[in-house]
Amino acid sequence: MGVLVKEEIVRTNCRGCHGGCGVLVHVRDGTIIKIEGDPDFPTNHGSMCSKGLAFQQLVYHPDRVKYPLKRVGKKGEGKWQRISWDEAFDTIVNKLKQVIKENGPESIVLAQGTSREGEAFLARFGNLLGTPNVMAAGHFCYLTRVGASLVTCGNLPICDYDGNPNCVVVWGSNIFWTNPDEYTGENLCRVLAQGAKLIVVDPRLTYTSSRADVWLQLRPGTDAALAFGMLNVIISEKLYDKEFVEKYTHGWDKFVERVKQYPVEKVAEITWVPADKIIEAARLFAKTKPATIQWGISIEQNINCIDSDRLLIDLLAITGNLDVKGGGVFFLPPKGQTISQFTYHKELPPEQSAKYIAGDAHKLCHMIGLVPENYVYNAVLTGKPYPVRAILLQASNPVVTRPNAKMVYKALSQVEFLSVADFFLTPTAELADVFLPSATWLEVDYTGGFFFRHGYLFPRKKIVQIGECKSDFEIWNELGRRMGQKQWGANHIGDLDQILAPGGVTWADVRDKPFLRGEVKYRKYLEKGFSTPTRKVELYCTTFEKWGYDPLPTYKEVPESPVSNPELAKQYPYILITGPRSPVFFHSEHRMIPWLRECHPDPMIDIHPDTAKKHGIKEGDWVYIESPRGRIKQRARFNPGIHPQVVCIQHGWWFPEIKTPDHGWDLSNSNILTDNDPKTLDIAFGASNLRTLMCKIYPVKQEEAK
C-alpha cells in the first residue's frame, strides 16, 4: 500500500519585493515546492517576477537563522550563542527600561528598512514608548511622495491602470523590472497593448524607455527643472483645464509667475533634453485624456526631492487628471483602521515629540513620523543633541543600503545596544547584541497592503513554520506587551482584528478571501474638496508658508555636479547614478539565493562604450569607481544608451559567500561613495543626494580583481 501524500495549493500574496502580487503556493506534505502567479489576482494577473518564483529557496536556505542569538565577544567577530525567545525579549526589554530611566525614551531609536509591511506595528510601539525617533528608508523613498501629496492635495494619487489611461508618464522608474509599491509592470504592459501613449523620463535607455513614444533623457538630478519646462508649455499654450484650475487650485497666479522663470530654452540647457522634445512631451500629456504619471524613487533622492514630487502632482492637477478615471486617483481602502489610528500617533506626548533629534529641520519628515538617519548616527558618535544608546532594527541592512556607509558602520559598531530582526546574518546583523530570526511572508498571517494607497487589502496566510522564526508583527506585539503597553491585542491575530474591526469583520472572516477592495469612486473633491487647509490643490503650499519654507516649488542645482562644482568635476569628471534596481534582487536582499545569483553573479557599472574605451576598459572588466568619499569596484557593462558623461552603478551589494563577519560589505557597496551631510539634504524631508554625485573611473589591476 502506497504512502499517502498530501498536496494543496494555497492562494496568498507575495512580499518578496514591493509588488504585492497574488500567488499560488504549491505545498506537499507541509513543504513548499513551487510558487507561481495567480491569474485571478488584480495587481499582477498571473505574472510573477524572478524573486517571487525563487522565494522558496530563501525560506529553506541553509544559512537562514532559525532561532534567537546573542553576541559573544566583541561586535563584528561573528561569535554567537543560541538563546530562547524569552531571554531575547527580556534582554531587549530590560535594556529599554534602563535607557528610559537614565536618559528618557528619546535615547531609543526604532528603525526599519524598505518594508516588510511592519511599519504600523513599529510606529505603534514607538509612539507608546515615547520616542520621537523612528528611522526608515522613507525619508528618501516613497514616504517622501506621501508627505508631498499630503501638503499639496491631501492624499497620494495612484495610477489608475484599471481605468485605462490613454497616456502614461513613467518618470524615473523602470517599472517592468522593479514592480514598485502599488504597481506591477504587467499593468503598464496591458494599457500599452491597448494603445496608450508612453512618455518616459530616464537618463538611461532601459526596457521601459525603449518602448516610449517620447523618451526624455535628462541630466541626472534635473527632474524638477524638466517638470517646470513641461508646465511652462502647458500654461503658455493654455493646454490646462481652466475650470479645474479656477475652482480647485490655490495660488494659481503666483504659481504661474514661478513657472515663467523656466522657459523651455533655459530648461533644455539645464536638463540636456532638447527643447522640441520637452514641447512634444508636454503637448502629448496635456492633450491626451485621461493621462497619469507614475514616478520612481530616483527623483526623490536628491535636494529637489519634495519639490519634484509637488511638481508632478501639479502636472496631474492642472491638466484635470487628478482623481479621475484613468488618471492619478485617491483610492479608498476597505473599511478598517487607518495607519494613523492603529499607530496611536496622538499617544506620543507633545513634550516627547519636541525632542525630535533633528530639531527644527525637515518639518515634513517629522510630520510623517520619521527622522533622517544621519542625525541618529551622528548622535551615537557625538552624544549630541543627546545620546542615542539603543537601536532596534528590523528588516534592514543599513550598512549596505544607507548613505555614507562608513559612518553607518562606525555608529552601529559603537552604539551601546543593537538588536536586529532579519532572515540572515547580514553585515549589519553581525554588529548586533541580539539577533531575532524573522519569518517571511510565507510564514505569517497578515493584512497585506494595509500601508499602501491602491485601495486593496490582501489577506496573507501562514503556510509553513520555519524553526523558531517569528513575524515582525509578533515581535512588536510581544515587546509592546512586555513593556506594559495596554493597547496591543492578546496576540498578533488580535491586532489584525483591531485593524479590521471598523469594517465589521475579523481575521477569521477574511483570511481565506483573495483580497478586499474599497469603494472605487472618482472626483471625490466635487463633494468635499481636497484634504488641505484651503480644501484645494495647493500649488502655493500654505503649510510650507507657515513653516517658513518656500510655498512654491523651485529647482536647485544639486550640490555635487559639473554645474555647481566645476573644480571638483576636473578631478571627478563623471556624473554618478547609484541605485537602479536589478530584477532579481530587492535592494540588499536575495544575494544568497542560488537561482537569482546565477542570473546576476556580480555588481555591474553601466558605461558608454566610448567612455570605457577612453579608459582602456573592456566589457566585463572590473572597474574602480571613486568619489570624494571612497572607492569600490564593479564589473563593466557597456550601454550605448547612456550619456558618455554619466555612469550608473548598482546598489545593495554585499557577498554572503564571503564567510568572514564583514561579508565584503565595503568592496562594491555604492554607499561607500555617497554622502549624508545635513547641509546637502532636501530641506523639507531630509532626502540624501544618492543619485547625483561626481566620480572618476579606472580599471582594476589584474592582481586586484579578485
Features:
single chain, 706 residues, alpha/beta, Rossmann fold, Dimethylsulfoxide Reductase, domain 2, 3 domains, 28 helices, globular
Question: Can you describe what's shown?
Answer:
- By secondary structure, the chain is α/β, with parallel strands linked by helices.
- It has three domains: 82-139 and 337-457 and 464-517, Rossmann fold; 157-329, Dimethylsulfoxide Reductase, domain 2, CATH 3.40.228; 566-704, Barwin-like endoglucanases.
- The chain has 28 helices and 27 strands.
- A seven-stranded mixed beta sheet has the order 5-4-17-16-15-6-7, with helices on one face. A six-stranded mixed barrel has the order 22-26-23-25-24-27. Strands 11-10-9-13 form a four-stranded parallel beta sheet.
- α4 runs parallel beside α21 (472-482).
- It starts with 6 loop residues before the first strand and ends in a 7-residue tail after the last strand.
Quick structural summary:
Helices cover 31% and strands 17% of the residues.
What topology does this entry show?
Elements: E1 7-13, E2 22-28, E3 31-37, H1 50-53, H2 55-59, E4 69-71, E5 80-82, H3 85-103, E6 108-112, H4 119-129, E7 134-135, H5 143-152, E8 158-159, E9 167-171, H6 175-178, H7 185-193, E10 197-201, H8 207-210, E11 214-216, H9 223-236, H10 242-248, E12 249-250, H11 252-259, H12 264-271, H13 275-287, E13 291-295, H14 305-318, E14 328-329, H15 339-343, H16 350-353, H17 363-368, H18 373-382, E15 390-394, H19 398-401, H20 405-414, E16 417-422, E17 434-437, E18 446-448, E19 456-460, H21 472-482, H22 492-500, H23 507-510, E20 516-517, H24 525-528, E21 537-538, H25 542-547, H26 566-571, E22 574-578, H27 594-599, E23 604-607, H28 609-614, E24 622-627, E25 630-638, E26 646-649, E27 693-699
Parallel strand pairs: 6-7, 6-15, 9-10, 9-13, 10-11, 12-21, 15-16, 16-17, 22-26, 23-25
Antiparallel strand pairs: 1-2, 2-3, 4-5, 4-17, 8-14, 18-19, 19-20, 22-27, 23-26, 24-25, 24-27
Helix pairs in contact: 4-21, 5-14, 9-12, 9-13, 9-14, 18-20
